[in-house]
Amino acid sequence: xxxxxxxxxxxxxxxxxxxxxxxxxxxxxxxxxxxxxxxxxxxxxxxxxxxxxxxxxxxxxxxxxxxxxxxxxxxxxxxxxxxxxxxxxxxxxxxxxxxxxxxxxxxxxxxxxxxxxxxxxxxxxxxxxxxxxxxxxxxxxxxxxxxxxxxxxxxxxxxxxxxxxxxxxxxxxxxxxxxxxxxxxxxxxxxxxxxxxxxxxxxxxxxxxxxxxxxxxxxxxxxxxxxxxxxxxxxxxxxxxxxxxxxxxxxxxxxxxxxxxxxxxxxxxxxxxxxxxxxxxxxxxxxxxxxxxxxxxxxxxxxxxxxxxxxxxxxxxxxxxxxxxxxxxxxxxxxxxxxxxxxxxxxxxxxxxxxxxxxxxxxxxxxxxxxxxxxxxxxxxxxxxxxxxxxxxxxxxxxxxxxxxxxxxxxxxxxxxxxxxxx
Amino acid sequence: xxxxxxxxxxxxxxxxxxxxxxxxxxxxxxxxxxxxxxxxxxxxxxxxxxxxxxxxxxxxxxxxxxxxxxxxxxxxxxxxxxxxxxxxxxxxxxxxxxxxxxxxxxxxxxxxxxxxxxxxxxxxxxxxxxxxxxxxxxxxxxxxxxxxxxxxxxxxxxxxxxxxxxxxxxxxxxxxxxxxxxxxxxxxxxxxxxxxxxxxxxxxxxxxxxxxxxxxxxxxxxxxxxxxxxxxxxxxxxxxxxxxxxxxxxxxxxxxxxxxxxxxxxxxxxxxxxxxxxxxxxxxxxxxxxxxxxxxxxxxxxxxxxxxxxxxxxxxxxxxxxxxxxxxxxxxxxxxxxxxxxxxxxxxxxxxxxxxxxxxxxxx
Lengths: 423, 364
Hints:
- The structure holds two protein chains of two kinds.
- By secondary structure, chain A is an all-alpha fold.
- In chain A, 59% of the residues lie in helices and 0% in strands.
- Chain A has 25 helices and no strands.
- In chain A, helix 22 packs antiparallel against helix 23 (329-348).
- Chain A is elongated and about 130 Å long.
- Chain B has one domain (24-271, 278-284): Cytochrome Bc1 Complex, Chain C, CATH 1.20.810.
- Chain B starts with 9 loop residues before the first helix and ends with a helix.
- In chain B, the strands form two sheets. Chain B has a two-stranded antiparallel sheet. A two-stranded antiparallel ribbon of chain B has the order 3-4.
- Chain B is mainly α.
- Chain A binds chain B through residues 325, 327, 329-330, 385-386, 388-389, 392-393, 396-397, 399-400, 403-404, 406-407, 410-411, 414, 418-423, and chain B through 35, 38, 81, 84-85, 91-92, 232-238, 241-242, 245-246, 248-249, 252-253, 255-256, 259-260, 263, 265-266, 268-269.
């Protein structure tokens, strides 16, 4: 330890007169940046982060006196020096500012200040309170030094980065062994429709882990709240499901709602084959041939198939008319309505109410059939135009022949000097 | 009136009434005596008539289109779409208008080059040539302004590129650009302006110059090939009925071609212009501007210290002026001689236009 006593003097000589001056901005950074790994990179990361940009420096979290060069004096008891906070201390430390609405208002009046309260209700917070220092606290997700605003892509909790950040712990089999929960959520999520949208297409509208589990108050959603969680985005599906006969039955049986058919982390893009009585049907997980649910599944599937057939037929007829150079933009626009009805029929499946499903289906079928009739009329019009052109061309050609003969007749009857007069 | 003479018929009375107010019989006499030279190159005379016929079709179909067309970025495309789908024969009228416009430009070009190569511009027909050049320029301006009116994607971007080129003219380019666009960009203001040009300004100007052009043709008569005046080798036919009927025959044939094109290759409307969309691939001007567009594309960035595009625009302007002044530059033709250099220049120009047009279409 004795050689450490001379460290400030050595650093002062290396760093030159700037450091030695009393009242310089931050002597913590000046010394620690010269101490090698890992201190130098921590100082470097902190100096450009969201806190540094708001003049929040080392001492605001670690205590100490940054104005003196002497290490012992800078970390003396009277300076309030805290050193490196223990995991259990971190939420409280961050909360000193972030849970204080008056303080936070000066930086961002719209920023919420309930993170700490939420955190203590989360599985992470509950376990931390119980003394489990392995669970995530503020710094685990946001980082300690180099914290960035969640709005910036560089942040560890920017929507595109959330799955990887959560996976640092939740994907580590050894680290998670004591909790006895699966560690393949990230792999499953990556294969899901949500994961592909977020991770492959960078669609920040797609849900990441926190959108279903919560972020500061992260918990696995309970059975009864799954449709609420999915309904945050899939509002119509949720409303229809809650009105359906399935809702009370699922509750009674104690099975999750959306998850039964769609899965959880590995939610696949829904297909029409999921409904009905085929091999990919999810209805057959519970229903068997001959029961009412089986028959209804067949009818729902038939509704989707019939509107799809009309849609495809209308599309083919429009293409046929367009190939004949007929103006089909109105019909193409109308076809979107059929497509819309098809989507609505698929959504209406969640009501499991055949009358409602067939009502929407009929709207689509009726529009689709009108389009087919109009496209047929256009194709007939095409042939009508060609017949009209044929007649017109014949008349004009006939007139041209008559005129030609008339010219010959006139010129034959004209005296030579009149028709070919040489001057 | 003598009591012995029978009362004149209604027809005679009408003619006499008219004659007292306008010397109609002088016009009839003129038509009776008017003769048109006839020789192996006489076929070229008919292209002026064909151009006139196509112009008449343009006026008639244009008036019909005006019954339904509405200008403005929110209505132009929709009104043309309505015309094509819901108005009986609307598709045919629009298709004929578009095809006739293109055939008119083609016919006018053929007419101009035939006059050039036969030296029909020589004294005393310099004014006929000058008014003819004016009509050709106006025809192209009709095409350029009319192209934008349906407010579709291709037309919008082609107009953007076309007016950008005008903006490269030194000194007055910026002014001309704003004058054409009605602002810094191609917007609804440009559409209104082009509509005004297309249906009011250009038709008015065209009618006046066309009247002068036809008057000069009637006063001077049609030209004969060089040397024919002296050698008296060229025969002639009466203007009426021989030439008029032949003209009519050709008009019928052109009408048939026009109907075939309009029905078999109807003019498409495309997608509505979206001012915020990126320019789609395949933006190209109408075919008769292609040789100029392609030349400007091929020019290097800088020539003789000025921008390549500006150099090109100035070059075309100079060539246009020289071309317009050819009756005054070609002194030999007036004296009955046939200057070869004029022929070679003409062949070069035709070959250049054809080559650049073909390259333009191959590259896009």
